[in-house]
Specification:
single chain, alpha/beta, TIM Barrel, two-stranded antiparallel sheet, 12 helices, 13 strands, 18% strand
């Protein structure tokens, strides 16, 4: 799967993933009002608004980027209707040729971990039929429970040609409470990174592994160090834009081949229509503003990497 992602990155020239993390406050009245008119001010109404919002963004950016990353919690809070919108979004993005990274951050052990993996990136036999769940291409995984929680995902990756991104050093301010704690003279996030490289050896797909890592753009020095610890792991980099990360911070996340990292932006793209930076667009022009934000992000990253 990681080779498919690399192929898409090279085709578009943009190591960018769009985070499809909708909130009611991001959705213009023309979309929200129509959904509420049809379904009422209900979970079903919100789910329809999310779906239409996502679709408009995807229709305007699918030719510019290799991947999208829907955050499942934004949908789960509205119960089954929200999950239906999540699934519709996943399916539509794949129809448009995008790699779908399900931001699910699952972490458990044994059969429970295996079930999470099957439900999101795998399939299961039901009588004579093969049934898939959400069917993303790649998912995020929390490694806090150790190898018992990660290896079932790797088994499904190898069976189904899928991938995972393991949380190593996250972009949130309090991540250091646990991740920076020293154990045997090194921070915990380095130990996790060493395991990511080790786990990845069992799931190579060309020069890179199907076992990647999540490392926040808000920690560029750590990103450069972790890049060396995990030479075969692709790095998913959140924290660009709204969380403070910028193109100049990203150099160390990439390998000398210009590959090795993909940068996520969520609010900076999907809520660009609300930003003063894109005031040239009429109120509610969600897709057009998102496209302009992706182009600007691409220029920022390209400029930074060209000076590496």
């Amino acid at each position: 799967m990681i080779q498919k992602l690399i192929d898409s990155i090279e085709r578009t020239g943009a190591p960018i993933v769009v985070g499809l993390d909708p909130k009611i406050g991001f959705i213009p009245e023309r979309i929200l009002g129509k959904a509420f008119e049809e379904f009422g001010e209900t979970a079903e109404g919100v789910a329809e608004a999310f779906w239409q919002f996502n679709k408009e963004i995807v229709d305007h950016v699918y030719d510019l980027v290799p991947a999208v990353k829907p955050q499942i919690a934004m949908y789960e809070q509205y119960g089954i209707p929200g999950l239906v919108a999540f699934k519709k979004t996943v399916d539509y993005c794949k129809e448009k040729g995008l790699i779908v990274i399900g931001d699910i951050k699952r972490g458990d052990i044994g059969s429970t971990s295996e079930s999470y993996a099957i439900g999101h990136i795998g399939s299961t036999q039901v009588g004579k039929n093969v049934v898939t769940g959400f069917n993303e291409d790649i998912v995020t995984v929390n490694p806090y429970l150790g190898s018992d929680g990660v290896k079932p995902f790797i088994s499904v990756c190898n069976k189904e040609d899928k991938g995972i991104f393991v949380l190593v050093k996250t972009s949130n301010p309090s991540s250091g409470e646990f991740q920076d704690r020293e154990i045997d003279g090194k921070p915990l996030y380095e130990i996790v990174a060493e395991h990511v490289e080790m786990w990845g050896a069992d799931s190579m797909d060309g020069s890179y592994s199907n076992v990647g890592a999540v490392v926040g753009a808000t920690y560029p020095e750590m990103g450069a160090k972790l890049r060396k610890i995990m030479p075969h792991a692709y790095i998913l980099v959140p924290g660009y834009g709204a969380q403070g990360g910028k193109g100049e911070d990203l150099k160390g996340f990439f390998n000398k081949d210009g590959l090795g990292a993909i940068i996520n932006s969520s609010r900076g793209i999907i809520a660009a229509w609300q930003s003063d930076n894109y005031s040239q667009f009429e109120d509610g022009m969600v897709g057009e503003a998102a496209r302009a934000a992706v182009i600007d992000m691409h220029i920022d990253i390209e400029r930074a990497l060209s000076s590496k």
